[in-house]
Amino acid sequence: MKEAFRRLWTIQVFLALFLAANPVAADGTTAVALGSPVTGTISAPDEVDWYSVTTDVVGDLTVTQTAWPPYIETRIAIFGPNSQTLQQGNPVAAAAPGTYYIKVWSATNGSSTDPYTFTATLAKAATGNDIDGGKNSATGAVPIVLGAVVSDTIAPSKETAGAQDIDWFTLTTDVIGDLTVTQTVWPPYIETRIAIFGPNDATLQQGNPVAAAAPGTYYIKVWSATDGSSIAPYTFATSLDKAQTGNDIDKGINSASGAVPIVLGVPVSDTIAPSKETAGTQDVDWFALTTTVVGDLTVTQTAWPPYIETRIAIFGPNDATIQQGNPVTAAAAGTYFIKVWSATDGSSIALYTFVVNQAGVAADAGTVLGPPDAAAPDAAKPGDSAGADSGRSDAGSADAARSADSAGADSGKPDAGAADVATASDGSASAPADAAVSPGRNTDSGSKGTGGSSGSSGSGGGCITVGQTSSSGWAGLVLAGLALALVRRRKPRI
Q1: Helix (H) or strand (E) holding 113
Q2: Which of 220, 257, 312, 449 sits most deeply, having the most CB atoms within 10 A of its CB?
Q3: Cα–Cα dist 307/402, whole Å
């Protein structure tokens, strides 16, 4: 009897001390402190003990049992945060700040005077509380800088207790380039995702990387695809590969009024890509080239950015609305405008390159002063075909004296042997080698005097040629006729 009384007194003293250290919460549970061992008993069948513990930072909450009453199979479960019906696992990964409830009972509905013991602990998240203060939207985005390494957790914080964590960041660029977000650390099991939005619009989603990203503010969203959470941090870094040509060559004017002066023969390179001056608008580049001579003007593209289908057009002269072909044939002197754009409204940091050349043409090109190769009237024409009449085309004239290759051609008649030429019985010409020669003809074959035709043939002076139609030329014809008559009279009789 005394022994039983002594045990009861001991239990009562223990309970008094426990209650003093662990006051009953307003909800009827016993409040306990993180890290302090808790001892109790399941002293009656169907007894259930409830404890509460409150946290103010995110972390993994664990309840560890260290003493078990024999035979009654005690069980421990965790509920919360701020709910005695929302059961959690043990441990509670990335437990949000709030009040958690710990339930202890016997799985066999047994009882025992032997105590159970447990301890609740919290392993704080490596990055502390939620980086964006629990705002979970672009309005609370945390500013970051290019190249910096960023770490945080997808885990509820004291500001977002019970809500799914989403982190937002903002990044501002002032030059064009490829913007890339690279994740280097992944929390296990929760499948973190990263997306980029902008520029200057948190609803305009981009790819990753953002090719030829225009200057402006970009938003970076990090979340769990499984709506999970973890105290393990994610880590990412941002980078910007600047375009090789820097900002827009025409400062974002995108019209002929801002055309960039260029010169003949010098390659020109730039990008079809938005710049800080044209953020959010489609890039169009204009150039201006001035020529002072007439000639064929050609624009030749030598480098093409992939996929965006660059186009080049020529306008002018002195008017950016008059489109020309390419090349511009016999381009007049003046200022020409060259437009470069993407047929697909695309953009790229890859360069286009072109060069403009002009084939020079004489100043009087295209002006016809007379028939081709015409000579001045009454002037002898060297180098033309035999028998060309002065002042006429190169073709032989029936009125001109002909220097036919066959001997004995009569003056003013076709090249074929004339019927008026006396022939011997064997058909050969009977004119001697020293037959009369037309005035103005040198004795050397092929040479030419006043009015003579170059390239005349025959042996010695055996051909009569008249290549002049002036008054002195008519006198020569008369003399030639007399000479021919004498030759005929001297022909021997048979």
Answers
A1: none
A2: 220
A3: 70
- Identify the helix (H) or strand (E) that includes residue 383: none
Return the amino acid letter for 220.
I
Neighbouring residues of 171: CB distance < 8 A, sequence distance ≥ 6: 143, 144, 145, 146, 179, 217, 218, 220, 238
Q: Which residues contact 362 (CB under 8 A, 6 or more apart)?
A: none
Same fold, 22-124 and 256-360: yes
* Phi then psi dihedrals of residue 101, to 5 deg: -115, 135
Task: Provide the edge-to-edge strand list for the sheet that holds 177-185.
Answer: 149-152, 234-242, 177-185, 210-213
Task: Please state the domain extents for the chain.
Answer: 22-124, 138-242, 256-360, 377-494
Q: What are the structure tokens assigned to 108, written together?
A: 């066999």
| DSSP sequence for 268-321 | EEE-----TTSTTS---EEEEEEESS-EEEEEEEEE--SSS-EEEEEE-SS-TT
Domain covering 22-124: architecture = Sandwich (2.60)
Q: Which of 164, 157, 172 is nearest to 193 (CA)?
A: 164
Number of Cβ within 10 Å of residue 75's Cβ equals 15
Query: What is the distance between the alpha carbons of residues 274 and 250, in angstroms, rounded to a whole number?
Result: 11
Low-confidence residues of the chain: pLDDT under 50: 18-21, 23, 26, 127-128, 245-246, 361-472, 494
> By three-state DSSP, how is residue 259 classified?
coil
Question: Which residues are within 8 A (CB) of 25 and not within 5 positions of it... i.e. 6 or more apart?
Answer: 31, 52
pTM passes above 0.70: no
The β-bridge partners of 6 are: none
CB atoms within 10 A of CB 271: 27
Q: How far apart are CA 443 and CA 250, in angstroms?
A: 76
**Residues 79, 88: contact at Cβ < 8 Å?**
yes
- d(CA 395, CA 125) in angstroms, rounded, equals 104
Q: How many other CB atoms are there within 10 angstroms of residue 321's CB atom?
A: 8
Q: What is the CATH number of domain 256-360?
A: 2.60.120.380
**138-242: in CATH 2.60.120.380:** yes
232-247: pLDDT as tens digits: 889 999 999 876 544 5
300's CB contacts (< 8 A; 6+ apart) are: 354, 355, 356, 357
Give every strand in the sheet of 205-206, ordered side by side.
142-143, 167-173, 216-224, 192-197, 205-206
